[in-house]
Design a protein that fits this description.
about 240 residues, mainly alpha, 9 helices, transport, Aquaporin_transptr, cell membrane, MIP_CS, transmembrane helix
Length: about 240
């Protein structure tokens, strides 16, 4: 249970402090600050829980690990459940904090860091732009994760590399979709924001997940793997962002 609890806590932290940066301080720190908050939160958790669970914090990453043959189906299901619950808990705590503002908090107007696209959202990009960005960014993010943690590669700085990659993708994606790359990160805020966030949630559940599967296949097939060897499926990831 330790690795599942680790994934719960890690995803909780990512949503609370990443989305929290947007909700509580976005008007002061801007897109750069929000992107750094997500990247720093991931990097910190990579070294805090990486030795326990591998610090996926993202169903798309777990799907990539499973497709690459680096985790079991049992772990995959349990990881995803833990990540989704962690994201929901993180969003719930964020809402509790936001509504404690003495001047009040209008959830309908200000949101909870949820993802979206179209009129009156971010830079007002259409659904095609949202799909293209989320697929490519998620694909590349999971590729970075799998590459930095594959067997035979020094992993001491993997958490830093993955955190930097996440920050970069967020800098580009915040005006487009609010940058998801992560079904759990999208689910938590959307459940509380409701309305439009719920109606658009499907994109952020489906597209990053497909991208994660494709990334895993690229490694399993040997196209991107350091060495083309038959994967050995274990109950925990073979490599972790922090060893």
């Amino acid at each position: 249970m330790k690795k599942y609890l680790a994934e719960f806590l890690g995803t909780f932290t990512l949503v609370l402090f990443g989305c929290g940066a947007a909700v509580l301080a976005g008007d002061r720190i801007g897109s750069l600050g929000i992107a750094l908050a997500f990247g720093f939160a991931f990097t910190a958790m990579a070294y805090g829980i990486g030795p326990l669970s591998g610090c996926h914090l993202n169903p798309a990453v777990s799907l990539g690990m499973y497709t690459a043959g680096r985790m079991t189906g049992k772990d995959l299901g349990s990881y995803i459940i833990a990540q989704l619950l962690g994201a929901i808990a993180g969003a719930a705590v964020l809402l509790l904090i936001a509504t404690g503002h003495l001047g009040g908090y209008d959830l309908a107007a200000r949101g909870l860091g949820q993802n979206g696209w179209g009129d009156n959202y971010g830079g007002e990009y259409n659904i095609a732009a949202a799909i293209v960005f989320e697929f490519i960014a998620s694909l590349l993010f999971v590729i970075v994760f799998l590459g930095a943690t594959q067997a035979g590669v020094p992993t001491e700085l993997a958490g830093v590399a993955i955190g930097i990659a996440l920050t970069g993708f967020y800098l580009v994606g915040l005006p487009l979709t609010g940058a998801s790359l992560n079904p759990a990160r999208s689910l938590g805020p959307a459940l509380f924001a409701g309305g439009r966030a719920i109606s658009q949630l499907w994109l952020f559940l489906v597209v990053p997940s497909i991208a994660g599967i494709v990334s895993g296949w690229l490694y399993r097939s040997g196209i991107l793997a350091k060495e083309h060897v038959r994967p050995r499926v274990t109950e925990v990831p073979e490599q972790q962002p922090m060893t």
